Amino acid sequence: MDDLMSKGMRHANGALLSGWSAGGLAVILHCDDFGNLFPRNTKVKCLSDAGLFMDAIDVAGGHSLRNFFHGVVSFQGVQKTLPQSCTSRLDPTSCFFPQNLINHIRTP
């Protein structure tokens, strides 16, 4: 992003961050950070396509996705980038799931 901003993107009238699947999850996770790169008068939007991974019991009766995401959060240091408004109420792994994170995002 620093490279694009230095090449003039900081002067854009509008900006869209988009991604699908895991990239869609990344859009949700980084939407506010992306929006904060621009002046307030820039119209910023985020589009997550198929990035809603649900914290639900799987067909085997387990929590395989939760266990996987716990590893991601732990090993990659994701906790530092999650909104404090979420992590003050829920554990960091729960805040990695869009169903819990989405209400803490300010950028449309």
TrEMBL record:
GO terms for molecular function: pectin acetylesterase activity. One of its GO terms (biological process) is cell wall organization. InterPro entries: PAE/NOTUM. Keywords: Cell wall, Cell wall biogenesis/degradation, Hydrolase, Secreted. GO terms for cellular component: plant-type cell wall. Its EC number is 3.1.1.-. It comes from the Eukaryota. It is found in: Secreted, Cell wall. It is an enzyme of class 3 (hydrolase). Its main location: secreted. The keyword Hydrolase applies. Belongs to the pectinacetylesterase family. Hydrolyzes acetyl esters in homogalacturonan regions of pectin. In type I primary cell wall, galacturonic acid residues of pectin can be acetylated at the O-2 and O-3 positions. Decreasing the degree of acetylation of pectin gels in vitro alters their physical properties. This is Pectin acetylesterase. It comes from Lithospermum erythrorhizon.
